[in-house]
Design a protein that fits this description.
Archaeosine Trna-guanine Transglycosylase, Chain: A, domain 4
Amino acid sequence: MTKRISHPDHRLPALGIRQPWAELILRGEKTIEIRSSQTQIRGTIYVYASRKLATTPHAVKAALKAGIDVTTLPTGVLVGTVEIVDSFPAAEKHATAAGVPAELLEGKFGWKLANPKRLKKRIVPEYLPYGVWFYPFVRKNPGTRKQA
């Protein structure tokens, strides 16, 4: 049985993901996140909808296919949680689950996602993102500025 999480959970790291990808993850339509490196992190993480939107042609196409108006999506907030259950070299067979063309997967890694959950109330992090991973409520990096 999965343990219930009270939000905000100060122990959870967050991963910044541009919209519409964050929304597609929460809908369970994007089940593989593509990154340039593997991750050792497993378990539940926060999904942080980055302030900038994804504007690549494949992001625009994915939003249109899902009927998403990206201008209405939240940005700059924690929008949900998802579990990272695996990390592996990306291959052509992962293109559909990642929402990107197969040719973009060469030399990349896939992070398998499961059990997405939308937060009932979006949360503004206390600390700004400072890398791929960040802790929205705990200062882990002394150079990080607190959000005004």
